[in-house]
Amino acid sequence: MTIVRRDRRRAPPRPKVLGIDLDAETRCAHYNSPLDIVAIRSRCCGDYYACKDCHDALAGHAIRVWPRAEWAETAILCGACGDQLSIEAYVGGDNSCPGCSAPFNPGCRHHHHLYFEAAAPPI
Question: Could you give the percent of the chain with pLDDT greater than 90?
Answer without folding.
Answer: 83
